[in-house]
Amino acid sequence: MSKVVFERPHALTDLQFTYCPGCTHGITHRLVAETLDELGIEGTTVGVAPVGCSVLAYEFFACDMVQAAHGRAPAVATGLKRALPENVVFTYQGDGDLASIGMAETVHAATRGEKITIIFINNAIYGMTGGQLAPTSLPNQVTQTSPFGRNVDNDGFPIRVVEMLSTLDGVALAQRVTMDSPKNVRAAKRAIKKAFEYQIEGAGFTIIEVVSTCPTNWGLSPVDAMQWLRDKMLPYYPLGVYKDIKADGFANVAEAAAARAAELAAGSAAPAEGGEA
Amino acid sequence: MTEKVLMKGNEALAEAAIRAGCRFFFGYPITPQTELAAYMAKRMGKEGGVYLQAESEIAAINMVYGAAGAGKRAMTSSSSPGISLKGEGISYMAGADLPGVIINVQRGGPGLGGIQPSQSDYFQATRATGHGDFHLIVLAPSTVQEMTDYVFRAFDLADEYRTPVMILADGMLGQMMEPVVLPEPKTEFPEKPWAVTGHKGQRSHNIVNSLHLQPERLEETNIERYERYARIKATEQLAEEYLVEDADIVVVAFGASSRIARSAVNKAREKGIKAGLIRPITLWPFPEDVISAAADRAKAFLTVEMNMGQMVDDVRLAVCGRKPVEFYGRAGGIIPTPAETLAAIERLAESLEGGAR
Ligand code: SF4
Fold first, then answer.
1. Interval B6-39: pLDDT, tens
2. Which of A247, B69, B154, B157 is most buried, by the most CB atoms less than 10 A from its CB?
3. What is the pLDDT of residues B148-176, one digit of tens each?
4. Strands (E), chain B
């Protein structure tokens, strides 16, 4: 009798991923699928796929799936969740999708406290269209459409998405993770699972930003891409928990927002966001 | 049950949608359809439904996409500039074969245009609401009663053919008050086995999607959709005919302008001109059979629109060169008067007497 030590999560179909070697989309898909398995929610979950490299996510996840227009996944997820309040709804979006063309949908789903989970892939570039400047491309980063490097005078500054969203009252959990080591993958898994748990408990809007690689469009080998992620991306996009209302002792965003409003009214607002207050 | 109540067009639309089983309304403020959203905001909660003011027209139509994908009866409403923004989402709904109802209470354009009633979105509604090969079923009410009846019907058509359906109204119909008989609330709805509701481990996953990277597969979906459109064209064309039987001049007008056209036709008859009216109710599918049949008997056609001449193209296609087709219209939010419409009929009658044919 042999013992199974590793197998495909049930919540992934048996289709071959279409991702490039060294791309962290694959690991992230797996962690989401493991979460659906462990929480026993594959049968009640509806996922929303974006436009971008992960557009075919609707074929890879075994739960019910919807393909959304570019950037509109949070609005589609809002319609789904309002229609199916007992189900679990998540979106899986890249940086162009979420932080550029879909920023309005993202911010408003967050501030409404939609009880959805967003898995946000930040790899500082447009992958599927062949490596153009993204809202998260780093200063001086060379891309197809910033051939001399991102010039912040012309192109503006990259957006730190979870920091920005953590200022909104509707957000229950905003955390940034990465996939560059077994330790960080395990931490990412815990964060993703926590986000889904918060959604199930009705805590509020949850987002996990995954600092990711795109070896193909960065023009690097998988190993060098991982090193570039550590050297360049993590200093600009520090890992961490930017908002966690449960760690702050609140059951949901309504409670947390009421406490915050009272603090502000009393003129004694806590100086910093983040788990420890 | 047959009791009449006095209602504003926009409110009648909203109430009829609720009675048709719509429990999800996503909107964004825009004149002149605001009463509809306000009515929904008041009523939806009491019906156990959702009223949500979206951050944009784009988000609103995508929320409809989500709720419709989940198998629910969902609706959004707007006015001309807002419909342009919804074009993307409407195309995705068509591509993913999602039912849903879109209300356009038209105002004048292009651009920000104005806020007075117009019919200048006829092309947009019937030709190219968004990118790609697709059509919407488009219904054009001309009374508050029809606002009520057609929105009720729109949800059934949407479910039956798995297509978005548009109610093309205008600011005049939206704002006017008339007595209406409201429909009895609908209690039975079709099954939607394709909806994404969570597979519960009992089926393989459902996917709501409009992407087909293989050209052959994409073409197949287009062909299948056009077969459905052919069925819609064969069975759903709807028009009202008024005094057409013996008419020399057939006026063609829809929606608000058909009300003016009707009184102009009556006045023409008083003056001894044999005029009649065809009022398209479905703008897509266009009632070409009725128009084509009329072209065998009538001497000429006059389309009357609140725009620079849009539906006139469809009338010409249906008449197919057999008889002259003229146009009379006012744009910018101006409603043509019965007198000037009558004058247009008279001019046409004179030109026919002048021995043109
Ligand atoms: S292009 Fe980049 S993001 Fe897309 S699959 Fe390849 S490596 Fe991943």
1. 999 999 999 999 999 999 999 999 999 999 999 9
2. B69
3. 999 999 999 999 999 999 999 999 999 99
4. 4-8, 24-27, 50-53, 74-78, 100-106, 137-139, 164-170, 177-181, 207-208, 239-242, 249-252, 275-280, 282-284, 300-305, 325-329
Q: Which two tokens stand for residue B255?
A: 């929606």
Asked if residue A9 belongs to a domain, the reply is no
Give a yes or no: residue A199 inside a domain.
Answer: yes
Please report, to the nearest 10 degrees, the dihedral formed by the alpha carbons of residues A229, A233, A237, A241 taken in order.
10
Whether the pLDDT of residue B357 is over 60: the answer is no
Among the four given CATH numbers 3.40.50.920, 1.10.555.10, 2.60.40.10, 3.30.1050.10, the one describing domain B239-352 = 3.40.50.920
Tell me if ipTM is over 0.85. Answer: yes
Task: Describe the crossing of helices B9-19 and B34-43 by its angle, rounded to 10 degrees.
Answer: 40
Where do the domains of chain B lie? 4-236, 239-352
- In one letter, which amino acid is B16? A
8 A C-beta contact, residue B47 and residue B72: no
Asked if residue A275 belongs to a domain, the reply is no
- Report whether the peptide linkage leading into residue B285 is cis, meaning its omega lies within 30 degrees of zero: yes
At A161, which CATH number?
Answer: 3.40.50.970
* Mean pLDDT score across all residues of chain A: 96
- Which run of H or E residues covers position A208? strand A205-211
Is residue A28 classed as helix, strand or coil in its secondary structure?
helix
What's the CATH number of domain B4-236, 3.40.50.970, 3.90.70.10, 3.40.190.10, 1.20.1070.10? Answer: 3.40.50.970
The pLDDT assigned to B291 comes to 98
Q: Give residues with Cβ within 8 angstroms of A170, minimum separation 6.
A: A110, A111, A112, A113, A114, A204, A205, A253, A257
Q: Which of B144, B170, B180, B179 is nearest to B33 (CA)?
A: B170
Q: What is the pLDDT of residues A229-246, one digit of tens each?
A: 999 999 999 999 999 999
> Could you tell me the two tokens for A90?
């998540």
Instruction: Say whether A63 and B198 touch across the interface (CB within 8 A).
Output: yes
Mean pLDDT over residues A18-44, rounded?
Answer: 97
Asked whether residue A274 is domain-assigned, the answer is no
Q: Which of residues 67-126 of A touch B (CB under 8 A)?
A: 67-69, 72, 75-84, 87, 104-105, 107-108
pLDDT tens column, A180-197: 999 999 999 999 999 999
Residue B211 with chain A: CB contacts under 8 Å: 55, 67
Using a CB-CB cut-off of 8 Å, the residues of chain B touching A46 are 70, 196-198
Strand partners, A90: A47, A117
Residue type at B122? Y
Those of residues 130-189 in A touching chain B at CB distance below 8 A are none
What residues make up the domain containing A105? Answer: 25-269
